[in-house]
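ARCHIVE CARD
SHELF: 3
SLOT: left
DATA:
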Amino acid sequence: MANYYANSFVYPRELTRQGNYCFDIGAYADVWCAKDTGTGETVAIKSWRGAGFDTKTHQKFVDCLNRELTIWSGLSHPNVVQFKGVVPDFGHLPALVMPFYQRRSVIKYIRENQPTRILDLAIDVACGLTYLHSLQRPIDHGDLKGSNILVDDDGRALICDFGLNNLVGGADFNFTTANVAGSCRWMAPEVMKPSDTPAVENESGLYTSTKSDVYSFGMTVLEMFTAEKPFAHLHNDAAVILATIGGRRPNRPTAEKAPQLTDEIWEVIESCWAQDPDQRPTMDMVGKWLQSCI
């Protein structure tokens, strides 16, 4: 299987799985803790969940994965998760190796630690997203939400899983999902109703863009300050989709629910989720506005 990849992608040393159960569960993959037998470093392995593919579909998945990894391996930013390599023989599909973050996702971190400055985490995410959008060939994340943001031992937020919706959302790739709520709660209206946007369809069948990322960022910041998913009062995803397409947004939470959410931060959130994508600010502008809220 290793010959599917450039040598630079295959993790160079042997990894030993730690424990009999996965460390965390994502929407389409399980995250395992493993140890590098050469260095002793603890790493995370993201292993795709679901049935294996036939040979043709498997090769198509590998080709798509290679394209995403070519991009990911060239990135370097303190608020973007580092790509460490691929493990070809960990499960029925090649697994991704990343740094291990004991604190897991930003929402779990906020719930368990109740940090005094949630704004700092939001600024971290804004910096990472600004970096992705500012590259010579801009990268849109396509699925930004709290579960795709990790926190390191220093309390710094890092973006992960950018571009992977191109893999899990592909028509030929059927993965078992544990994401009950779906991503519609963070999804921009033009992504749900693509006829209203000139954005180019990606391999997942979604019309994402840097502008739809800005919308998702606004929803993610709300999620961070409340520690609950957007549109928490709506239990049906269909109702969320109808509300979003119809221009409705979550109400501002009470001070008791989100004590750190100031008027200035709320204004930034509202600007991010404008119905018209052209009316949304760039992530560079959003980051500067949030900095001014400190």
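SLOT: right
DATA:
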Amino acid sequence: MENLTTKKKNNLALAVGFFLIILVSLVTFYRPTFRKKTPTIPDAVPTETNASSARGIESDELSKKIMTESDLTIIDIRIEGDFNKEHIVNSKNISASGLANALPSLDKERTYVIVSDMLSIQDTAYLEKIFRENGFQNYFYLIGGFSAWKSKYNPTLSEGNPASFVDQSKVSYITAEELKKLLDSNSNNVFIIDLRKSGQFSIGHIKNAVNIFLDDLENQTDKIVHGKKIILYDNDGLWAFKGAVRLYDLGIFNVFALSDGLDAWKKKGFEIVK
């Protein structure tokens, strides 16, 4: 009799245990149904951020705009150091924090494309807000930012890094003595650019040189005479190298950097004018 009672207790314990296993399994299976759903990003962000997504353009589309639209302005809002290192040709560097102050002075009839590293939802909402508040209609954002532009092998302007094999491959050099011989034999086929600041240029420069400061070179290519050998120089050759890289990136290839600079030119006693 005692064995029978013990057996019933064991069976009951097994039944209860089996029931609990089934119950836990059912709760686990249906748990997602009972859980409150988290809203997706589009439902959770303000309306203006949703609108900005329609203003995103791919790199290929921006490339077409550059080729076909004369009223296009590209604004790069990355930090100044990154912009100077490399950027889309003819783009303007305005910080995100400074853009609100800059917008009132910009032409509202032009088309604007914003370039960044990567815009967050908060960034696009802010930019959308300040563009609308200033009455702009034609503004877009480059999807994927500058890195997406580069990944498609679109043209960029490099600062010119002497340690870069790629940048070194863009530059041809000429020495002071070689330039002197070239000028003595056929000076009409040479266009010389002094990349130093105007104050240094006025103190003394190579005869017939034109002064275009290095940082202005990108925006003053209209001053360059094409069809001639273009010689770039500064004091020691570094800026000449940088200038040659930039002209190469701008599609101007018949360029030579004075490797030993104006300092070597002076030491050799070659002509300097004021």
